[in-house]
Design a protein that fits this description.
The protein is of the alpha/beta class and about 450 residues long. It is about 30% helix and about 25% strand.
Length: about 450
Amino acid sequence: MLSIHHPHLMSHLQLFRYGLMPIITTAGEHFLIIKATKEGILAARQKTGFKIYLLSEEPGRFLGLVTAFFDDHDQPLTLMTALFDGDEMTGDIEAVLSQPEFKVYFVDEQNRELLGVRVANSDAGRFRETMARAAFEPLDLDTCGEVVARLSQRFSIRDEIDDEAAFVLSVQEHLYPEDLVIMDTRPAANSFNGAHQRPAVTQLVREDPGPPQERDIAVMLGRVFPPENIFLNPFRSDTDKELCDLLVVTDKVMLFIEAKDSPNTPASLDRSLERKRQTIQNQIIKATKQLKGALTYARSADGVVIKAAPEPLHIALAGRQLLGLVVIREMFDDSQVANSEPILDMVPRTRSVPAIGMERAAADRIADLVPAGPPSHPPLKTTAATAALIRMASSTERSPSFGAFAPATAVKGTDVLRRSGLRMPPRPLEPPPNSPHGREHHRSRRPH
């Protein structure tokens, strides 16, 4: 396993967003790490491989790579990897993908290694020849985000010629059992309130997705909020019913979170897109109703009283800003208006408590709302993250494009997980952060 044979790489993965990480060891071994969502990883396993598109806007002038995981023939999950002339990564990618066989390790957003395989690239020679004569954009930190957006747009209009030219990486063997169960004993996964209700266990296939997703979000929140401020599955003391999936309390804000996910199983992977779309809409409606109940209770009671040992814990509102957040697995571009309606309708019914929706991949990047600063000052991180969340949720710019869901670009460094709508006109995309390796993880759909 990667985490056993190359443990030093795990610290690098913590700073790495969704995407491709080519590795060339001092011993001369070339392999690939792919950081993706559990859905993308399961698709690669079930379909025994994935495709990589090397796309150009004009002959010989390329934008980069699109890695596609085909849980759906027309709208695969994708990773966008812009490549640049003069960038060391371009050479490393070429070195790894030019091999007829190599190892690929898949990790999720929590840097847990869920799958390891050896893949074959039957067109390795063609990839090497294409890269040898390919020209890319010059490396420029000010325009790299725009290149990623162009690459995404280019993939959305791909045709049969592009599909035939894609490089198929087919799984030849599994490097270790594929039904791993991982118990996370790291402090980050066990330090917040409610962490010990159940063990921190995860696996690629999830029949019951709720508990592991909620814990993962708590871990993500722990990057910027002290663990004592985070409550996992708090229960109301008066009714003995769950108040919300997660609660975050600081001296400035009381944040209520409802998170919804779907099973990550071969059966769910094969469901039609229309069924997945309807499931997401139903989940948003349910989450919004639950969130409304929690916010109404907190407003009327001037705070919350939750079960705790040895006695109930009373947290007074005391001038704190109430805030609601709905987290869903993914969102279709052409469903944003419908997805937003339940949240927008809820706001006036809670006496204008700000509320916002986020896709899971965007929520994972909440830590990036915080400007880089000394790690020894966690209160500064908490203050910055709180202010950014309030600003986004309170924004009056609720356009038809985004509705109640935060634009992915509002979260610095966000790797977007999304499906694009059929024949939707391209909308302007704000560039992601100034990084030479801007990535997007999303759904992409092409016109018929």
